[in-house]
Amino acid sequence: MAGDITQIEYWNGEVGARWARNQAVLDAVFAPLTEALFDRAGLSPGASVLDIGCGSGTTSLEAAQRVGAAGAVMGADISAPLLAVARSRLGAQAPGAAPVTFVEADVEHADLGGFDAALSRFGVMFFPDSDRAFANLRRMLRPGGRLTFLCWRALPENPWVQVPREAVLPLLPEVPPPVSPDTPGPFRFADPDHLAGLLRGAGFGTVACEAVDRDVVLGRGESDAAAAEAAAHVALNLGPSARLVREAEPDLRARAEAAVTEALRGYAVGGAVRLRAACWLVQAG
Ligand SMILES: C[S@@+](CC[C@H](N)C(=O)[O-])C[C@H]1O[C@@H](n2cnc3c(N)ncnc32)[C@H](O)[C@@H]1O
User: Fold this and answer.
1) How high is the mean pLDDT of the chain?
2) Which terminus of the chain, N or C, has less C-beta within 10 A?
3) The pTM is what?
4) How far is the CA of 30 from the centre of ligand 1 (A)?
């Protein structure tokens, strides 16, 4: 996905910096999916929770609210810029929330202690060795503990990514490589049988993959044209299609922005671009 660079380099470079600058934008796009994640996770008051690939900390802070002062939350990530945003938000926690710690750690390898629950919003698709990472996560769960996470279903089921992607593809000099479950990337776990097999192989006894579909608002504006521009910014800077133009020359980038804005204009209604997002909501215990 990210050429020859490692995941640590990828999430500490320009991509991590962009995500860090746009935390509120991303949270707004993912809001309906985040709600589904927490509904399923069913965190109990007093629980200790690990947030895997916590990014700028939104789901860790939400978990802390849900488990309350008797609980504890650890957010783990490999991205220093995202963790800096996460730590800067600690002071704004509402009273009654659990203490939260943010640690720079690779959850494929690190031993972070024992947890009653682990969760992740799109943070489990980037392990170089998924077998090892899920086995490590299994080890960190106490008896009865559950892992709950969101990952993407296949590209064609995700118009919020597919529409901008199809606008960009004709402009590219090379066709991007097909998605492989063995390579880190947002769509690697599109096949639920493969994913369930991985989790069982890592020691999880029960695995359920529920299809969750939600409309996400990719951009808003005072007019439909402005909403399409905002949505194109998200698609080409933050969403999975951003990787298509990550290293593009300014001319190609400008043409991609124009093409994506035009494609998304067709989905703008009442000052908002709304498109379908399709995930697996996975729970393993
Ligand atoms: C798509 S982002 C999601 C971030 C956050 N969960 C959110 O929803 O805003 C994926 C995150 O996983 C983190 N990540 C990737 N590989 C990791 C690893 N091996 N250990 C910990 N975090 C990792 C990245 O740094 C990045 O923050």
Assistant:
1) 96
2) C
3) 0.96
4) 14
